[in-house]
Amino acid sequence: MCGIAGIVSKRNTPIRIDKQLLNKMSSLISHRGPDDNGIKVDEKNRFGLAHRRLSIVDLTSRGHQPMTSNNGNWIVYNGELYNFKDVAKKLSLGKELSKSDTSVILEAYNKWGENCVKHFRGMFSFAIWDEKKNHLFCARDHFGIKPFYFHESKHSIYFASEAKAIIPFVNNLTVDRKALKDYLVFQLYLSNKTLFQGIEELPPAHYMIIREGEVRKFKYWNLEFRIDRSQNEIYFQERIQELIENSVKNHLIGDVEIGAYVSGGLDSGVIAALANKNLGEKELIGFNGTFSNYGDNFDESIYATHIASENNFPLLINDISSQNFIDSINKVIYHLDSPVAGPGAFSQFMISKLAAQHRKVVLGGQGGDEIFGGYTRYLIAYFEQCIKAAIDGTSENGDFVVTYESIIPNLSQLKAYKPMLKKFWETGLFDDMYERYYRLINRAPSLGNEINWDYMDNYSSKEEYKKVFFGNNINKGSYFDLMTNYDFRTLLPALLQVEDRMSMAHGLESRVPFLDVELVEFSSTIPADIKFKNGNPKHIFKKALTKYLPKKIVDRKNKMGFPTPINIWFKGDLREFILDTFNSRNALEREYINSELIVDEIDKQGLYSRKLWGLLSLELWHCQFIDKKL
After folding, report:
1. Are residues 33 and 115 in the same domain?
2. Strands (E), 359-514
3. How buried is residue 530: exposed, middle or buried, by Cβ count under 10 Å (0-12/13-18/19+)?
4. CA 380 to CA 397: how far, in whole Å?
5. CA distance 58 to 571
6. What is the arithmetic mean of pLDDT over 105-124?
7. CB count, 10 Å around CB of 466?
8. H-helix or E-strand containing 576?
9. Is residue 39 part of a domain?
10. Which residues pair with 125 in a beta bridge?
11. Same domain, yes or no, for 509 and 581?
C-alpha cells in the first residue's frame, strides 16, 4: 500500500518537470507511505514519477519505487496483487523478480501490454511509462479499492492517489457544480466526478493511455448478471464458503502482522474469524469503536467482544467522544479530499488510528452488503412492491422474487424504520421501481430552502441516477438485482473512498476480502430469490456462513451500520462548534447555501439523520480546500 503521483507530457514534448514539483506532490501524500519515497525525472523531460511506500510485502530495498525494467519502462504502483506469485509463474520469472508484486506487474505489462490487468486479482492503481511506445499506461482495479485521480492542463497530465496532490497545479480551483448537486442528493458523486472542477477519477475497472495529446480510457471488466438457475441453494451455499475462505487466505499475504475491523456484524465478523483460523502462529488483533455513554443504540462492542471471544483473539476498543470529534474532524475532511457518505467516516478514522498503533494491515468487511444484498432499504422497497403485486395479482411473476405472504416474517427488521416508512409512503406510492428507489436514497427533500438549487444550473442528478440504475449489464425486470447493482456501482466506491482515506491517514493498509473478482462474479450468478429469499436480506450469505460465527450474530435483526451519536452532540457538546462554523463570514457568503437556516435546524435533527452532518462536512471542506482558511 502506497501513494503515487506524477506528471506527463501530453505530446511527448519536453515540459517543466523537476524534483521540486514532484516532491511537492509526494509530500502531500506522505501519510500513505511513511517507510520510503522515490522520485524519477525523465532525462528528456517527458514524464516525472513520485512514490511513497508503506512496506508490506518484501520489506527490503528491492521494493523501492519508481521501479524500472531492463527495457526502460518505469512504474509507480499502489496496492496489493494477491495472485502475484501465480502471475510470476505464468511469466516464468526468476527468483528475484518473483519476490515483489511491483516487479511482477511491470513484467506482466512488458509481456501482455494493456491486457495485463486481466490477469490480476487484487487492489491496485498504477502508472507505467512505456519507453518504446512513448506513452503512459495507467490502470485501476476492478472495484476502485485503490484511488487514481488526474487533471488535464494544456500541455500536461497530473495524476495522484489523492486529489490534494493535484490541487497545486489546478488554475482557479472551483467547485464542480454537477458534483455538488450529486453530493447534496446522494452524499456521493456519480460518473467519476469530484467536487473539484477539473479533477476526475479514473473509473474502477478501467485503464487509461496518454499519448500524442489524447487521453483515452478503456473499460476492461464489467459485472455481468448471468443468473444460473440450474443449481440449488446448497450448491450456492457451499461455493460461497469455498470462495470466501480462499479470498481471506489470499488477503493474508505479507511480511507484517495483521489485524481486523470487528464491528459486531456478520461481514466483518466472518472475515475476522476466517483470518484468525488461517493465520497459524501469528496473532490477529480485532479493533472496534464504540460510544459507551450513549446507550445500546450506539454500542455494538458487546457483539464484537462475543465474536472475538468465540474465536479466541484479542479485541481493542476505542471509546470515542465528542472531544475526539472536535479534535479530528478537520483532519477527517482533509484526508477524505471530498466529503462522502455518512458520519461513520469520522468513527472509522478513530478506529484506524487505534489499529495503526498495533498493525500495518487490517482486514474489513466492506462489499458484503452490496454483493449479497444486505441493506434494509431493499426490504422497504420490496414490501411496497409486494403489496402492489398482491393487489394487481402479479406475485407469481418470475422476476418478482418475493410474495406478500413470504415477506411478512421478516418485517420485524423494519421496526426502527417506521418514521422512514411514513415519510417514504407520503407520495408516489406504487410508482415505477426506479422512481421509488430514487425516493429511498434521495436526501434532497430534507434540505429544502437551505440550498440554492439554481446554483447547480439545469443538471439533473436524477437522470444520471437513472442511467446507472438501468445498466446494460442486468435484467431490467429484477428489482433486487437493479437495486444491488446500483449500490455496487455508486455507494460501494464511496465507501471504499472512506475505507482507503481513513486507514491511509494513519499509514494503515486496509484490505477487503469480499471484493475478490471470482467471488463477486459468482455472486452475480445467484438468483435473487435465493439471495433475498422470503425478503430476508443476505439469506444465502447467512446460510453459507453460519458455521463461522455464533448464532446470535448471524440472526441479529438490529445491525446498526456503525451509528455515530452526531446529532446528540450537535444539540449538546458540539452546539458551539456548529454555530461558529455556520455563522462565520465565509459560510454566510456561500452562493449555494443559506447558513442562517441551517443553524435553525440543529434541534430538529432525528437521531440518525445525516442532514446536518452532510452540510457541516461540505462547509468544512469548502473552508479547507477552496477558501484555504483552515
Report:
1. yes
2. 361-363, 509-511
3. buried
4. 19
5. 50
6. 96
7. 14
8. helix 575-582
9. yes
10. 78, 140
11. no
| Number of domains comprising the chain | 4
Domain edge (last residue) among 554, 575, 602: 554
Taking only the tens place, the pLDDT of each residue in 498-543 is 999 999 999 999 999 999 999 999 999 999 989 998 888 899 999 9
Identify whether the C-beta of residue 609 lies closer than 8 Å to the C-beta of residue 569: no
What is the 3-state secondary structure of 441-461?
HCCHHHCHHHECHHHHCCCCH
Q: So what's the pLDDT on residue 109?
A: 97
pLDDT band at residue 630 using 50, 70 and 90 as cut-offs? very low
Give the pLDDT of residue 473.
86
State the cell numbers at 461: 442528478
CATH number at residue 319: 3.40.50.620
Q: Report how far residue 498's alpha carbon sits from residue 494's, in angstroms, rounded to the nearest whole number.
A: 7
Average pLDDT over the chain reads 91
C-alpha cell at 218: 478503456
Give per-residue pLDDT as tens, 276-299: 999 988 899 999 999 988 877 888
Show the domain range for 611: 566-627
Note the pLDDT of residue 244. Answer: 97
Q: What is the model's pLDDT at position 397? A: 61
Strand locations in 283-331, DSSP E? 285-290, 315-319
Q: Are residues 96 and 203 in the same domain?
A: yes
> CB of 138 within 8 A of CB of 127?
yes
**Residues 206 and 300 reside in one and the same domain:** no
**Is there a single domain that holds both residue 428 and residue 533?**
no
- Contact assessment for residue 398 and residue 528, using Cβ atoms and an 8 Å cutoff: no
Domain boundary residue, one of 531, 554, 577: 554
Q: Quote the distance between the C-alpha of residue 627 and its chain's center.
A: 27
Q: Would you call 369 helix, strand, or coil by DSSP?
A: helix
Q: Which three cell numbers stand for residue 255?
A: 511480511
Which of 57, 8, 24 lies closest to 155, judged by CA?
Answer: 8
Domain membership of residue 229 (yes or no) is no
Is 224 inside any structural domain?
Answer: no
Determine the length of the chain.
630
CATH number for 180: 3.60.20.10
pLDDT at 586: 92
Using DSSP bridges, classify how beta strands 199-201 and 36-41 pair: parallel, antiparallel or unpaired: unpaired
pLDDT, one tens digit per residue, over 51-108 is 998 766 665 556 789 999 989 999 999 999 999 999 999 998 877 777 789 999 999 9
Gap between the Cα atoms of 610 and 127, Å rounded = 37
d(CA 388, CA 386): 5
543 and 477 in one domain?
Answer: no
Say whether both 322 and 436 belong to one domain: no
Rounded Cα–Cα distance for residues 537 and 371 (Å): 11
DSSP 8-state symbol, 66: S
Q: Residue 76: name the closest of 111, 103, 44 by CA.
A: 103
Asked whether residue 57 falls in the same domain as residue 129, the answer is yes
> Is there a contact between 183 and 196 (Cβ–Cβ < 8 Å)?
no
Residue 227 lies in a domain: no
